[in-house]
Design a protein that fits this description.
It is built from 4 helices and no strands. The chain is mainly α. The protein has one domain.
């Protein structure tokens, strides 16, 4: 018998194989979905606060954001660059979390799946 990942289970491992419905109904799957939603939600809130905070800062305090910090550069430019950097860092954090925690757990659950 071959599991969905293309791996033939070893002797004695067949009892661990489950149907897709059993996996979907399992506590491990529910915990995985809950963790993914939690991580995604936290990162989404951080990203929204960053982007909309920048927009609201520009709209609400033009004097501050139009303050020159160089000969031609206003404060809005480095703050805008910071927004882009923060978005990149949040994306990298999600990728690191997914590679370290989420993907191995998905692979473990897939390994339990009957083909």
């Amino acid at each position: 018998m071959e599991v969905a990942t293309g791996v033939t289970p070893k002797e004695g491992e067949l009892h661990a194989l489950k149907s897709a419905q059993e996996i979907i109904e399992s506590r491990d799957f529910a915990r995985l979905v809950r963790r993914r939603w939690t991580v995604s939600s936290v990162l989404l809130v951080l990203l929204f606060v960053t982007y909309y905070g920048y927009v609201l800062l520009i709209a609400g305090n033009k004097e501050l954001m139009s303050r020159r910090i160089g000969e031609v550069t206003t404060l809005a430019i480095p703050v805008g660059i910071a927004v882009i950097v923060i978005a990149f860092v949040l994306t990298a954090a999600y990728v690191a979390w997914a590679n370290r925690a989420y993907d191995p757990e998905v692979d473990r659950l897939k390994g339990q799946l009957l083909k």
